[in-house]
UniProtKB/TrEMBL annotation:
Residue runs in coiled coils: none
Protein name per Swiss-Prot or TrEMBL: Fe2OG dioxygenase domain-containing protein
Organism: Cinchona calisaya
Cofactor annotation: L-ascorbate; Fe cation
Keywords assigned: Dioxygenase, Flavonoid biosynthesis, Iron, Metal-binding, Oxidoreductase, Vitamin C
GO biological process: coumarin biosynthetic process; flavonoid biosynthetic process; pigment biosynthetic process; response to molecule of fungal origin
PANTHER family: OXOGLUTARATE/IRON-DEPENDENT DIOXYGENASE
Lineage: Eukaryota, Viridiplantae, Streptophyta, Embryophyta, Tracheophyta
Ranges of residues in domain Fe2OG dioxygenase: 193-295
Cell inner membrane is among the record's keywords: no
């Protein structure tokens, strides 16, 4: 049976104005019913140029929100635009060309390649999104078979972005480390040091005739240590704050940072891995480029030994990152 991509389902829906029932969420998940419309505090915006207060602001936002936006991050706008253009051009290729990079159906271990989430969620609902996953760091983890050769600029554009991203990640990890009362290098060392894996995902959310009824990516926290995300200009990311789903407003040229589960664990719960989800648009294609910064698969992560004592007992198990992911993906308790 030929695999249906959401992109193709969306084209068909354009003419009928209806969508298949397995994309329609229960009311308690529908964005039309559950998006908070009242006044609410905005997700913090952190200016990287503000060196003096930086570490404090990053740590504070990571404890209270677990998600924040960064401006003046030092990645040139041309570098980001080039990454976005390459990704957009890939998804605009004819289906046959995109399918060359399809995930291997038999290989459940690897997330790499072009795909659509096959496994339905608990209520049997599907997300209105296709994606492309590429490991972009370290060089030993890269598998160029899954990197599109068309558009021809994809590889260089992605590698250039990856080089710039390292500086941002180092600054974030250093600030969090200091905020936790550790030496500047200790958090990065504990999460994998120079073996940290950068995993790029491109989310492609085609227009949907019923955006109030569907979700792109449903409610979740990221399994990563940190996630650094570039969105396009179409609003869609929402964070769960104080019991409400609130929009994370699109800010041109900003990076969105999520604290992932591994930093929550290492900090023994002081930093929060925030629930978030994405919505889609009636007329426009939304895209986003999260990079999941993750420990190597066989690296053990648990609360940092300097952060636990008799007064602060460990709240999380220490386990291999790959085991953590297996349990989370299969909904087995950690
Ligand atoms: O597209 C977005 O803004 C969020 C995507 C996301 O949370 C994810 O892919 O993990
Ligand atoms: Fe996410």
């Amino acid at each position: 049976m030929e695999l249906k991509r959401v992109q193709e389902i969306a084209s068909a829906s354009l003419s009928t104005g209806t969508i298949p029932a397995d994309y329609i969420r229960q009311e308690n998940e529908q964005p039309g019913m559950t998006t908070f419309k009242g006044q609410h505090p905005e997700v913090p915006v952190i200016d990287f140029a503000n060196e003096k207060l930086l570490a404090e602001m990053i740590f504070d936002a990571s404890c209270k929100w677990g998600v924040f936006q960064v401006v003046n991050h030092g990645i040139p706008i041309e570098v980001i635009n080039r990454l976005q253009k390459a990704g957009q051009e890939f998804f605009e290729l004819p289906k046959e060309e995109r399918e060359i990079y399809a995930k291997s159906p038999g290989d459940s271990k690897s997330v790499e390649g072009y795909g659509t989430k096959l496994q339905k969620e608990i209520e049997g609902k599907k997300g209105w999104v296709d994606h492309l996953f590429n490991k972009i760091w370290p060089p030993s983890a890269i598998d160029y078979r899954f990197w599109p050769r068309n558009p021809p600029d994809y590889r260089e554009a992605t590698e250039e972005y990856s080089r710039h991203l390292h500086k941002v990640v180092d600054k974030l990890l250093r600030s969090l480390s200091l905020g936790l009362g550790l030496e500047g290098h200790e958090l990065k060392d504990a999460v994998g040091g120079n073996d940290l894996v950068f995993n790029l995902k491109i989310n492609y959310y085609p227009p949907c005739p019923c955006p109030d009824l569907v979700l792109g990516v449903p409610s979740h926290t990221d399994m990563s240590a940190l996630t650094i995300l570039v969105p396009n200009e179409v609003q869609g990311l929402q964070a769960f704050q104080d019991g409400h789903w609130v929009d994370v407003n699109y800010i041109p040229n900003a990076l969105v940072v999520h604290i992932g589960d591994q930093i929550e664990i290492l900090s023994n719960g002081r930093c929060k891995s925030m629930l978030h989800r994405s919505t889609v648009n009636k007329d426009k294609t939304r895209m986003s480029w999260p990079v999941f910064v993750e420990p190597p698969a066989d690296h053990h992560v648990g609360p940092h030994h300097k952060l636990i004592n008799e007064q602060n007992p460990s709240k999380y198990k220490t386990k291999k990152f790959s085991d953590y992911c297996y349990c989370k993906l299969n909904k087995i308790s950690q």
